[in-house]
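Take a specimen:
=====
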Amino acid sequence: MQWVGMFPGQGSQEIGMGDELLEKYSNLLKNTFEESLGWSLESIINSDDPELIKKTNIAQPYIFSISYCYGIETINNLGNPAALIGHSLGEYTALCLSGYLDFKDALKVIAVRGEEMQKAVENSNTTMAAVLTNDLNTTIEEINKLNNQGIQIWISNYNDPSQIVISSYIDDINYLKSNPKAIGAKRVIPLEVAGAFHTEIVSPAKKPLHDVLNEIDIYEGKIPVYMNVDAKKVDISSIKENLVNQIDNSVLFSQQIQNLNEDIDPDLWCHIGPGNVTAGMVRKSISYKDLKVINSLESSN
């Protein structure tokens, strides 16, 4: 059976997620995690503070680690996938499970990534919103018209044929929420995020990320990974450059799905990690495909 693994990014976190993994993967989630980052993931998992897990510097290592462990479980049960993809942060999970990145190195990079992204958006007065539309081309045209008028709107994510994620200043997002027809959309739904990720607002995070990536080794992966910045199968020589450019470029997830479908024609698509967001993107892109959501030990069987 040909199957594809997909990993979520920030925003999929939930209170207590992954608590069932603490005992089975104690070496990774307790020992290696704390040695690498200097703080306890177990204490975060056991916290009931929803604001804590919204912080970029905490949410990103947390989501990555939990998704990675569920990925191990899935591969143990289904065998190696035909390919892996990840949505933004989830790209690190895909690369790590493939073998391009070491788990400890990936944690080190993600920690810097989260800290610098948080720092870049602080006091930027920006946010993000999901845009639901029946005509994506028209919506993109209307966004371009607003940009030409000096109203800055970035397209951060191309999720599926009916949804993109935009970033802008809070007042402009609030206006579009009340007036979605201004960009030819059905709905504009503000997201609970710290700021405008995958835009020039977070470009200052690229240099620190570049520096920390240069401190780690990249290995030859065993499973193909398709990358966010160009939706193409990665080459080992371009991994670091792609990860740096991912910071302020659009996530081309919808195109990744299409390219994978054309190249591999997998029998099964598996969302692996908290939530189920990537499964929904596949359903709207290629609805005839079989889907599986793996966000617990029970569902990984």
